[in-house]
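pasting input
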Amino acid sequence: MSGDCDHHCGGHHEGLPSCGAQKGTRGGVPEFAERLRKKSRRVTGARKSILDILSRQSHPITIRGIHDQLPKGDCDLATIYRSMHLLEGMGMVKRYEFGDGQARFELLREGDDGHHHHLVCTGCAVVVELHECGMGELEARMVLSHGFTRVTHKLEFFGLCPRCQGG
Amino acid sequence: MSGDCDHHCGGHHEGLPSCGAQKGTRGGVPEFAERLRKKSRRVTGARKSILDILSRQSHPITIRGIHDQLPKGDCDLATIYRSMHLLEGMGMVKRYEFGDGQARFELLREGDDGHHHHLVCTGCAVVVELHECGMGELEARMVLSHGFTRVTHKLEFFGLCPRCQGG
DNA sequence: CACAAGATGCAAATGATTTGCAATTAGCAT
DNA sequence: ATGCTAATTGCAAATCATTTGCATCTTGTG
């Protein structure tokens, strides 16, 4: 199928907005292609397109969001779902859930553990990326006090952004 | 030191286990009936049963979990879904999402803001309730630095409980 | 260039949650 | 008690996000 990547940020969708600001600078797609090959996974047109789209997002994007940005019927929804599982399993994307029933994904660069959180506006759904998190010690305390290991956490913030504070 | 988990539910249940341990002591149902009346909502048999079941849980429970605990076909699933929306809207229950696609609910006593989090075992799904959270200042900083108001957060921890650490 | 392991498209299947609608019921007035 | 009306419920059908079966097509390799 096609194989080219040439999508421009498509305007506004009602879901969570994701206008603008390229995030990853250099076209990281080849970097990911390499990672795929190393695990004997194929670098297909669909995956390239998906990675390409992911690489130009500044916020987590939904499966449907990805699909909508792909030229016409370039790639089936099922394929995107399958790809996201694969990429997630390979640690190339991270899954987020903002509580609206749809999973959202963000690309993870090599060596990036992607550990950060989001501040989501409950009014317009704008997303702000947060990079501080001081959860480390709390997590550690939990390990000790409850005997759990491999403790991770999911943390997201919700509130009203300046624009939605009407009045 | 200690590695005690207060739970010891076999693991037969598929979903998240909810070992007995009554939580709210006194039958709080009448308290809730009162709250319902105050908002001109009816105290129906279905609601009483649901509140009763919720009141005897020690961890968040799913809709299906509630349904399974109701005598035979005592109350329709749709009714439980509708009730949970109502109760959530009235601040009588709090919704949690542990990432497995099903919502879970916990009853909130009068004056209880229900602010706490959970430590969920990724192996057997045992749930430990956590009551510390030190997110307050982080939240406040967020308000200031991004101009958001009414900021809240969702925070859940995941890890392997002592029993599931075998191997 | 042939091949087998992988991938993909399409349609049908799941699973959780919602909704339309007619039948029932709780809470208040009579 | 009895009646009345709005709130509720059961049931079935509808949504929605996500999965999966399967036949067909591709990629990476020899």
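fyi The longest helix of chain B spans residues 77-89.
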